[in-house]
Each structure stands twice: as structure tokens, then as C-alpha cells.
Input
Amino acid sequence: MPDAEAPARSPDLLRPRGSNQVGMRQFNERTVLQALRVHTSLPKADLARLTGLSAQTIGLITARLEEDGLIVKQGRVRGRIGQPSVPLALNPDGAFAIGIKVGRRGAEWLLIDFTAKVRERHAISYDFPDADELLPAIAQHIHRLREGLGPLAVRNVGAGLAAPFQLGGWHRTLGLSKAQADLWNQMDLAAEVRARTEVPVSFARDTVAACVAELVGGRGHDLKSFLYIFVDTFVGGGLVINSHLHTGAHSNAGALASLPMQSVRADGALPPQVMAEASLWELEQRLQGEGLDPAAAYDDRALQPPFAAATQSWLGSASLALAHAIVSGTAVLDLADVVMDGSMSRALLQALLEQTRAALAQCNWEGLWPPQLHGGRVGAQACALGGAMLPLHANFAPDHDVFLKAG
Output
């Protein structure tokens, strides 16, 4: 049973709900909030049925959540047998979070509300990040987004940072000096950001954050288990098993960029990796080799003249590499579904999905069951959006690993 009601308090402040040791009352509150997140709006009777809590407990919890400004009552629903029901829903202004994506080609900041709707976005691009410029910019944008909330700034529960584990990895491919690469590879980026802001900062690998966004706000509503692929400047991914994010021993599960394309060569040379074919970096190089703007790899120009020829060539090799990764993943994981998304235009993603499906049809599936390949629903903002979901999860989700699904 929930504890006794707390004294009256300012509706502008959030009652601490813990992040590690969550008591039964707090767990029940989080379970109710998650049910409303998944189902958008529910009357108390449906909340009791979905959560398994008694009607009395639901009444006490929803009264507390409404007092805290986390949920709101909607209009009465009439026309059914019995008394009209009053659906409850998350209050969009109940809490806010900031998501930050730091990539090899650009950085992005998102401010999302309690329903995970993007309220504000800012992005910058660069050839490769300069730490002396980017670190202060990250703190400045966090401060600007938070202060822009005005009186609601106290409802910002933190920031989530999404970035590659080794931003300076593959430095020879990127044309970087070893010193440039070492600077980023040896830096604790999350600690650097925490030192520059008073806002709590969470961290996740960029494609893992994108996978979280897809799990919570995309295909995760329909699929229990899937291999997730995100095609960005480099390619990466994540792994969802039974509606939970599986990160692996080193939080690196789904790191498809490093998957070798063939066995070790007889001459001892290292085989090429998936990243060498299925990345937007490779498309950039093809465009640049034709004297074209490499930034077109990320927008609608990629499939238009004069960029289309180089893009079609890239699609042919990228789809084969991705098909190889999917077959390899299927052999190990035996998953029925694969979800692919990326930082490119929706039209280019659709073309990549079609060619990858065609490549999969030509693969050797002896002893395996081919999975179904789906397009992601979140899109290019997935990394930053997943980052923003991290502090919301830490403060309001009932499960330690990732958002649970009610019922």
C-alpha cells in the first residue's frame, strides 16, 4: 500500500522518486506513469486492470501524481454503461529532459517534454569536432534550453548524452592525426560535460540511445525482440531482447561497424569491416570523389542528379554489407526481426531497405530462418531523442533496464 500523503507542496517542484533503490510506493507510481506513457490515456479502472493494483491504491497514486503535476484529467467519456469515465494522461509540462548527440559530423540538442515530444532543436555541423569549441557549446546549449523553460526550468530532470564510445576511432579512415584521435579516445566525455553544467548528465553509446528511442517510441511497441541497425557517419546498432535493451558485457552489443566481412586472410592482413561499406562516410567519399558536396549524403539531394549515380553505387555495396551483418546476427541470435534506421533522408532509407531485402533474398539461409527487415520509425533524431529519454527513464520508469510495456 502507498505511504501516507505528504504535506501540501508547490506544484512547480518535482518530488524525488529515486533512481536506484525505488521503494514499493515509488515503483507503483512509476508503473502507473509507464502505463499512461504506453497507452496515452486511461481511466482509473483500466489502470487498475493493467497494473494489477487495487482501485484504492490507484486512487491514492493518481491523486499524488496529479498533485505533483505529472498527470492531468481529460474530458469525461460518455456513452458507455455505468458512470462516465475520466481518462488520465501524462501532463506534457510535468517534466522535461535534454538530449545531446555528439557525432563525428555534427552535434544536436533536443528539449523534450514528459510525453517525449520535441519542444526545441538545435544542430551544428563540422568536419570533425574540436574539443575546445564543442565542450563549451554543449554546456551553453544545455543552459539555454533549460533557461528557455522559464518557471518550468525546475522540472528539467537532466540531460542525456549520446556519443560513440571512441569518437576518434578509425582515425586513419577519417584522415585524423593520432593526436586528434587520442584526445577524444582518452577523454571521459560524460565527465567533461558534467563538470560544465549543474544539470545531471546520463551517457549512452549513440546507437544504443537510438535503439532506446526506437524501443520506446517506434517499432518497440510492436516487436519484442529485434536487432537494431543505425546507419550514420559510421554504422552501429543495438539489441532488444524481450522488450529490454541488451547492452552486453562492455555495453557494446550491436556494434556492427566492427563486424568483419570475411575470414582472416592468408597473408595475415586484417579483413575489411562492415563500416567500410555500409556507412554514410563511405557515401561521402564517393560523392567527394565526383567533385560533389559530401553533405548531400544526409539530405534529399542524395537520390537526385548529379548525386544519384554515386548514391546508387553506394547502395549496391552497402546493402550487401548489411545483408552480411544481418545473416551473421541471425545465426547467433535467431531473431525474427531487424529494424534499420539512419541519419539519411527517408527516401534514401527506403531505397537502402529495398536493396538490402533483395540482397538478403540471395543469401545462403541453410539452417537459418530469415528475419523480417523493418524500417525504423524515429529517424535521424533517434540518437539525441534516445539520449533525452535516459533521464526521463532514470526518474520515472519502473524498470532498471529500459521502459517497460504495460500489459
Notes: Residues 51 and 392 are 20 Å apart (CA to CA).
